[in-house]
Structures are given as C-alpha cells and as structure tokens.
Amino acid sequence: MAQFVEKTGRTVEEAIAEALEELNADMDKVEVEVLEEGNKGIFGLIGSKPAKVRVTLKNTAAEAGKKFINEIIEKMNVDATVEVEETEDTLMFRIEGNDIGILIGRRGETLDAIQYLTSLVVNKGREEYMKVVVDIENYRKKREQTLINLANRLAERVVRYKKPITLEPMNPYERRIIHSSLQNNKFVETYSIGDEPNRKVVIALKA
User: Given strand 200-205, what is the order of strands in its sheet?
Assistant: First the structure.
C-alpha cells in the first residue's frame, strides 16, 4: 500500500513542502492531490482557509525492492533494517542488524536467493533492466577478497606440484571472480566443467 501524508499550509506550495519533508522525498518521487486550494480571506484574516494536500510516494523500483526485502526479514524473524542506494542503472540494498547470518546462508546461498527474487520484483514490468545487488555487512566484498586469495594460493600449489586442482561448485558470480583473478597469470589457466548448479572451476598449468 502506498505511503502518504496529508498536510495543510497557508498555500498549496507550503503544504507540499511540509509533506515532502515528512516523507523525506523529492518532488519527482511523489504524486500530489490538492484537497483544498485555500484562500487568504479578507485582509488575510477574516474567513481565511488553509490549503490542504495529500502527497503519496510513488511505488518506485527502489521502494518495491525495499518493501519485498523487509517482508522477507519479517517472516524470518530477523531484526534488521534496509538502506537503498540508487544509481542510473543499479539498486544497492544494504541490510544491517544483529545476528543476521541466517540471511547470508552457506557460502552466501540465501543472500543470492534474496538478491535474485528482489531483482524479479524490481524489474517486473520495467522496459529497461535495473541491476540489483543485495549485500549484508559488506559480505560480498569480503567474499570476493576471500576468493581472490584462494585462487592465488591454489595457483601456487598447481605450479609447485604440477597437478590441476578442481574447486568446489560455485555460482556464476564466484566463478567469474576466480577466472578474473588468474586471467593474467603466466603459469596457470582456468576453465569450468560440469552443469549448473554443480559447475566447478579447474586451475591447471598452461600447456
């Protein structure tokens, strides 16, 4: 359900300004309905009537995504908040709270599922695709660095023992990190084997 407030003021503009402040929104993010035009009365005193407006937040992609994530958090009985950062083609949802590891899951599987579902909600009915990223306490950056360190460590082992190493199954995002971190390595190469969701990266000596 859309969020709205009704405000009065000496003028329509004043009433709208108060509503925008309460909603913490810009004019392009709301719809305005003038309920009463108001009038100054005689000499601005006798018979004066305030203006009244109803200002409603538009159901933007950011609001739709935030609402969906909040519903998931509530159903999982997790105490957390959601902040949204919006750029031209990306929505970043940051979840913060206490004891929210359950939202990350094993190797980020739950977090990836939340991100995927949120992307479906955000992009429903949109003509232009909006990239969606859901992160928890900077988990994705930490996970990326962990995978980069792992890739470099295993590459050294491949060179030392001259035997290929097959990693555990990873999602496409994590496989790209492994491939990217070793693409300029002079001694090893990487490739993927298997089918989703059990596709794996192999690190091997260059021929």
Answer: 165-166, 200-205, 188-193
How wide is the angle at C-alpha 159 spanned by C-alphas 201 and 182, nearest 5°?
45
Give the pLDDT score at 149.
97
Q: Across the chain, which distance is largest between two alpha carbons, in Å?
A: 95
Q: What is the pLDDT of residues 40-56, one digit of tens each?
A: 655 555 557 888 999 88
CATH, domain range 141-205: 3.30.1370.50
Exposed / middle / buried, residue 187 (Cβ in 10 Å: 0-12, 13-18, 19+): exposed
In this predicted model, what pLDDT tens digit does every residue of 59-117 receive, in sequence order?
688 888 999 999 999 999 999 999 999 888 899 999 999 888 899 998 888 999 999 99
CATH entry, 4-57, from 3.30.30, 3.40.1350, 3.30.420, 2.30.30: 3.30.30
**Cβ proximity of 178 and 162 under 8 Å:** no
- The pTM of this model reads 0.63
Rounded CA separation 72/16 (Å): 33
